[in-house]
């Protein structure tokens, strides 16, 4: 399994490479088009990790786990249900989650698997979908929960989930990760709040890439946040949320 | 009033400039940061017009006109209601609107004013909002109408409006345009279907930029589609939709 990471050095230089224990083997070129190793090795402690890719959009699913759907009494959808978190919402590993100035309500964490698109995908079949996935990352799909139902006529999913720093992704893109065996574990200030198997997804990653690519073109670096399951909860200022998926790592963000 | 345009020459060169009658006065640099005239003039007939900017997101409003809200029996919202059309949905003037392969239902046009953001906007006041607007364009907010209510639990606004070629914008960005006097006129195959005053907006452009910038950072070139009013209707294959706003021009797209 290859763990791709993007970073910034203490001198402000941007780079990317493959994480190996506490070292990054640097690569050059385009992460999505045959990148080449530079031969250089950089200590993980010497860099700041960035979001592992720069999505033009994060497609975020709702109601994609049987367990959460059953708990909420919602029937399984016939097509992935989604909204878009914009590029401006992106936050990397370790980045502080910021409360929007004009919003005083509840902010929740949602630990999720993220699919990272590897190449331009339009009308892709389920069978071919695997070839369009570079790898997998971890997402904290942060949400200003009280905005969603604020208007009686229009559920404000985009507004609630689109704020700056609400699209936390990282720490790496795991190439070769097998989602079928994985589980998402979310800890709030060290206490486990979510622990659910990825196998409980309603639409699996290949079905998602296929279906969504029939709605809109997915571009290299775009992320699909596959939805969350039981255990979503409120984050207070100062709280730390760690979302872990064995094989990918742990995405840690603190609320400022 | 300055009319900014982006274009591609017959030789495949990209450029931008100011439209003056049937000529483009070419500029260089960054359209959003003190561009400079090159001195060159290019005949409009010699180029293909592109979308006048490259938004990272199109923020598209729903229920933002008193007349349409009244007709639909919807109360006026207390905050702009919006979804995001992704960059992948962008189409320029003259570009063909394509039906998604997997969707056989009704596709509708929605003629709208578009606000083009001129500089990075976060938590901007209503008073200052004007300074963050480069100018105005025209939007055809194309929608796969039957997808919206397909799921009983989740209105699929993003999916219905996010398809490739469903974000038609252009032909230019009009700098100095006064929206208070304007009207949107939409013609389907030459027959007028929409004709409504911009002054009927619930949230005016300055309020929109202010409010939305409190939810998420708006970037140079981002577009806010301010919503549509009465007269939305179905487009069939082969139909031509022209959306006109005096002072900006006419955005023409044909459905392929």
TrEMBL record, chains A, B:
It comes from the Bacteria. Residues 4-52 form the Rv2993c-like N-terminal domain. Residues 57-254 form the Fumarylacetoacetase-like C-terminal domain. Transmembrane segments: none annotated. One of its GO terms (molecular function) is ureidoglycolate lyase activity. Keywords: Lyase, Metal-binding. Pfam families: FAA_hydrolase, Rv2993c-like_N. Its EC number is 4.3.2.3. This is Ureidoglycolate lyase. It comes from Pandoraea terrae.
């Amino acid at each position: 399994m290859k763990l791709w990471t993007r970073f910034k050095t203490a001198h402000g230089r941007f780079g990317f490479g493959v994480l190996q224990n506490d070292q990054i083997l640097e690569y050059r070129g385009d992460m999505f088009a045959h990148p080449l190793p530079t031969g250089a090795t950089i200590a993980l402690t010497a860099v700041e990790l960035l979001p592992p890719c720069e999505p033009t959009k994060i497609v975020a699913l709702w109601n994609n786990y049987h367990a959460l759907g059953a708990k909420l009494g919602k029937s399984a959808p016939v097509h992935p249900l989604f909204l878009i978190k914009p590029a401006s919402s992106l936050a990397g590993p370790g980045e502080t989650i910021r409360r929007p100035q004009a919003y005083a309500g509840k902010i929740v964490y949602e630990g999720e698997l993220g699919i990272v698109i590897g190449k331009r995908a339009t009308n892709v079949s389920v069978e071919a979908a695997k070839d369009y996935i570079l790898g997998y990352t971890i997402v904290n799909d942060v949400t200003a929960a009280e905005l969603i139902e604020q208007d009686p006529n229009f559920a404000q999913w985009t507004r609630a989930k689109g704020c700056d720093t609400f699209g936390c992704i990282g720490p790496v893109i795991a190439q070769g990760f097998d989602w079928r065996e994985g589980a998402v574990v979310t800890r709030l200030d060290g206490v486990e709040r979510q622990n659910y198997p990825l196998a409980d997804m309603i639409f699996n990653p290949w079905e998602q890439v296929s279906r969504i690519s029939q709605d809109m073109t997915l571009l290299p670096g775009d992320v699909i946040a596959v939805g969350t399951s039981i255990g979503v909860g409120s984050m207070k200022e100062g709280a730390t949320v760690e979302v872990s998926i064995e094989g990918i790592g742990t995405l840690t963000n603190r609320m400022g």
